[in-house]
Amino acid sequence: MKNICAICIVLLLLFSPVHLAGEEALTNGMIIQLTPETLARLRQQHRDPFLAGLLSGLYWGLGHFYAREYTRGSLFMFGDLVFKGLAVGLVLKLKNKYTGAGDDQIRWREMNGTDKSLVIGAVAAWLGLTVLSVADAAACADEFNLRNDPLSRVDLGVSSREGSPFVSLGLKMPF
């Protein structure tokens, strides 16, 4: 399983689309010169939401670290460790309760309703928290891209004041 995951990640990295741009880009009606240094910096700062979600699907919080959301990533990783510890405790409890001498299998039909509910609840919680981790990591990567895209920080406005055109140019700065 580890080999298949490693092969998938390598293939994703090899065949991920590379966005190439010309020497000029048209943004909000303005022409901006894109030098190779600027393009390299933009590519370095970009975080792929799909890759962030994939990493969080493999291990909760890993995609958050990729998107540089260290607090959220730490919380999800801690939650993952706690959940895995509880799952091991549940398996050991069920093993001690339902296995006899020489028999190491836990049979579903021999379990009572309460224990079946615990197993179904644990699987549902794991699926739900995995989906939450994937969606949140992808959203964090999108937020990172919006926060660090220099072209999205420029605000160009054209309006009319007292019959004459009024042009404003602003730079959005987070506080």
What report would you give on this structure?
The protein is of the alpha+beta class. The protein has a domain at 34-152. The chain is built from 6 helices and 4 strands, in the order αββαααααββ. The protein is elongated and about 90 Å long. It has helices spanning 2-15, 36-45, 49-58, 62-66, 70-98, 113-148; strands at residues 24-27, 30-33, 154-161, 164-171. The model is unreliable at 17-28 (pLDDT under 50). Helix content is 59%, strand content 14%. Strand 1 (24-27) and strand 2 form a beta hairpin. The longest helix is centred in the last third of the chain and has 36 residues, at 113-148. The strands form 2 sheets. It has a two-stranded antiparallel ribbon. The protein has a two-stranded antiparallel sheet with strand order 3-4.
